[in-house]
Amino acid sequence: MSATLLSMAFLPAEYPGVWTLTAPAPFADETSCQCQAPHEKLTIAQARLGTPVDRPVRVYADGIFDLFHSGHARALMQAKTLFPNSYLLVGVCSDDLTHKFKGFTVMNEAERYEALRHCRYVDEVIRDAPWTLTPEFLEKHKIDFVAHDDIPYSSAGSDDVYKHIKEAGMFVPTQRTEGISTSDIITRIVRDYDVYARRNLQRGYTAKELNVSFINEKKYRFQNQVDKMKEKVKNVEERSKEFVNRVEEKSHDLIQKWEEKSREFIGNFLELFGPDGAWKQMFQERSSRMLQALSPKQSPVSSPTRSRSPSRSPSPTFSWLPIKTSPPSSPKAASASISSMSEGDEDEK
């Protein structure tokens, strides 16, 4: 706790408003009016100037404050900040008065009293506040001004229960917060009754506590089971989508890698087996080597001839050159040539 809060926590009783910073606001019947100075009647102009200096301006705001919400808190904030130096008293009507003039409440009076005690803008809570303010009540609590929204509040046989306060010059208007009210909250619950009944059944409340019939209880529990199954299916669908997305990402990566490897393979193949590839050059080299190995070497022209033995007669040499002969012009010429060839063979013998 800071030094400022510590100093506020131990201030004397002349400054009861600071207790709201460190503790709940006190009840009016557990304390007495702390203002010791004479209670002189003030005008709104005087109060806005911060006078009187010796005491705060006592502002009163009342209401039912059922299901205490932000609209209530904003109204009390406005009442608290109407004047530079103010002390906010909040009156809360009892269950009997509320049920008689307005209707049934969700929270009982003890719960509503306690809710107001813990609002930061409240300096003091008045339990069992009157429905219509009387001069005796205003004098008892030394109230300078009454804060409420300016809409006429017709109730208890009156067109406006604040009419006499306005005529006395003690009324200070505040603004309502649109879109939020106790009636709006109750309307939401009534409109979505099945949803909230199922919600509380699921959280462990019994059908008797919820005033739910046997048939409706079974219906609500069945609907809860159906909702659970829907939620499971939804989760499975989401997980399936995530799995499919991961597979698609991985397949995309695999396709990219496959394309890169394919390009690399094709490039290497062309480099090796293409028109100007290394394989062609290697094949040409090997084929030239094989041709050299298979073809005989030519003997030199000036190689020495072998000496022939004198005893051996030289082997006849045959001429492989073809002899060109002209065809015989007549049968007689053909027979003459044949006879000459036979004679030649006899001579050789």
UniProtKB/TrEMBL annotation:
<comment type="similarity">
    <text>Belongs to the cytidylyltransferase family.</text>
</comment>
<feature type="region of interest" description="Disordered">
    <location>
        <begin position="289"/>
        <end position="349"/>
    </location>
</feature>
<feature type="coiled-coil region">
    <location>
        <begin position="219"/>
        <end position="246"/>
    </location>
</feature>
<keyword id="KW-0443">Lipid metabolism</keyword>
<dbReference type="InterPro" id="IPR041723">
    <property type="entry name" value="CCT"/>
</dbReference>
<keyword id="KW-0175">Coiled coil</keyword>
<dbReference type="Pfam" id="PF01467">
    <property type="entry name" value="CTP_transf_like"/>
</dbReference>
<keyword id="KW-0444">Lipid biosynthesis</keyword>
<comment type="function">
    <text>Catalyzes the key rate-limiting step in the CDP-choline pathway for phosphatidylcholine biosynthesis.</text>
</comment>
<comment type="pathway">
    <text>Lipid metabolism.</text>
</comment>
<feature type="domain" description="Cytidyltransferase-like">
    <location>
        <begin position="60"/>
        <end position="188"/>
    </location>
</feature>
<dbReference type="InterPro" id="IPR004821">
    <property type="entry name" value="Cyt_trans-like"/>
</dbReference>
<feature type="compositionally biased region" description="Low complexity">
    <location>
        <begin position="331"/>
        <end position="342"/>
    </location>
</feature>
<keyword id="KW-0594">Phospholipid biosynthesis</keyword>
<dbReference type="GO" id="GO:0031210">
    <property type="term" value="F:phosphatidylcholine binding"/>
</dbReference>
<keyword id="KW-1208">Phospholipid metabolism</keyword>
<comment type="pathway">
    <text>Phospholipid metabolism; phosphatidylcholine biosynthesis; phosphatidylcholine from phosphocholine: step 1/2.</text>
</comment>
<dbReference type="InterPro" id="IPR014729">
    <property type="entry name" value="Rossmann-like_a/b/a_fold"/>
</dbReference>
<keyword id="KW-0808">Transferase</keyword>
<dbReference type="GO" id="GO:0004105">
    <property type="term" value="F:choline-phosphate cytidylyltransferase activity"/>
</dbReference>
<keyword id="KW-0548">Nucleotidyltransferase</keyword>
<feature type="compositionally biased region" description="Low complexity">
    <location>
        <begin position="299"/>
        <end position="319"/>
    </location>
</feature>
<protein>
    <recommendedName>
        <fullName>choline-phosphate cytidylyltransferase</fullName>
        <ecNumber>2.7.7.15</ecNumber>
    </recommendedName>
</protein>
<dbReference type="InterPro" id="IPR045049">
    <property type="entry name" value="Pcy1-like"/>
</dbReference>
